[in-house]
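Regression test case RT-17, inverse folding.

Input:
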């Protein structure tokens, strides 16, 4: 089961290189002056989906935005 908080999710998943990203992989950010305070889901073509803040609409964003991305992870099992 994936933990609730972004920092716990980052700790529970496997770090991958950006070039290995596949749709469904998680991308983590520093949005509150601490590492891994926000998470999005990679959807392909250099874009991810996330909700910028509580109560906000879900958006698809380009991964080139300034605060993206500290860490890329996958929960896929090692082959």
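Golden output:
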């Amino acid at each position: 089961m994936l933990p609730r908080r972004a920092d716990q999710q980052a700790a529970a998943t496997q770090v991958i290189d950006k070039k290995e990203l596949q749709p469904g992989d998680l991308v983590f950010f520093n949005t509150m002056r601490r590492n891994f305070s926000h998470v999005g889901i990679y959807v392909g073509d250099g874009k991810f989906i996330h909700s910028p803040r509580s109560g906000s609409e879900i958006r698809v964003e380009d991964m080139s935005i300034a605060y993206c991305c500290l860490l890329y992870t996958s929960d896929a099992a090692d082959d």
